[in-house]
Amino acid sequence: MRFIIWFGALLPIVYALIRFSVEIQPEWIRESFIFIEQFVPFTLTKFPTDPLKFSTDLSGDSAFWLLALTLTFTPVRVFLKLNLIRYRRLAGLFSFFYALMHALLFIGIDQEFNVHGVIHEAVTKPFIAFGMGAFIIMLTMALTSTKKLFGLFHSWHKMVYIAAVLIVVHYLMSHKTVTWDNLSMAGVLIFLLVLRLIKR
Ligand code: HEM
């Protein structure tokens, strides 16, 4: 199981490396990707047209799905009586890792570490403020997720549900027009939150 989480969580990085190295790939690798593209809905043979947007979206989506995975372990234990809780921290830390990359791409590259620029964006675009709120919660959870500190900060980790709500809002508001695809992706997190309420 640990291997599956590592493997799945590292796939977005492999995908990004493939896309960014497309210009220097040997012919046989490019041929292989052209072959694979017939079967999977991924573009493997084109350099991203907007590399910053590509990286921000990829890291945001990866953080999102890994958070969804993290929230799945409790309902799986409650409803399916399958205890995989020991892998929850690993999935959560990977989710935080991608959230950190996502935030750094925006703050470091998009805003060039300009504090005023970041504050201005957060004030004028509420979806950025919601993302930051979720990120701060995830940061505190990652810092207190060690065996020693988790005992002390156990109740604080329930804040993950607030973070999930903030991320749903952040995700939906980041799109000018919300499509069924966006709604179904947000629906996954909402469904996991509802399962949590049923458990109570
Ligand atoms: C400091 C905190 C954050 C900032 C500044 C931020 C910034 C952004 C920006 C600027 C976009 C729009 C990118 C575009 O133009 O397409 C975006 C989209 C997104 N963000 Fe964040 N974000 C933050 C936190 C988070 C967190 C914590 C998550 C999830 C755990 C997240 C998940 C997403 C997702 C899924 C998208 C949509 C990506 C897509 O359309 O494919 N963000 N974020």
UniProtKB/TrEMBL annotation:
Localization, UniProt: Membrane
Transmembrane domains' residue ranges: 62-80, 87-107, 127-144, 156-173, 179-198
Keywords: Iron, Membrane, Transmembrane, Transmembrane helix, Transport
Protein name: Ferric oxidoreductase domain-containing protein
One of the record's GO molecular function terms: heme binding
Main location: membrane
InterPro entries xref list: Fe3_Rdtase_TM_dom, MsrQ-like
A Gene Ontology term for the protein's cellular component: plasma membrane
Domain Ferric oxidoreductase: 62-168
Membrane-related topology note: Multi-pass membrane protein
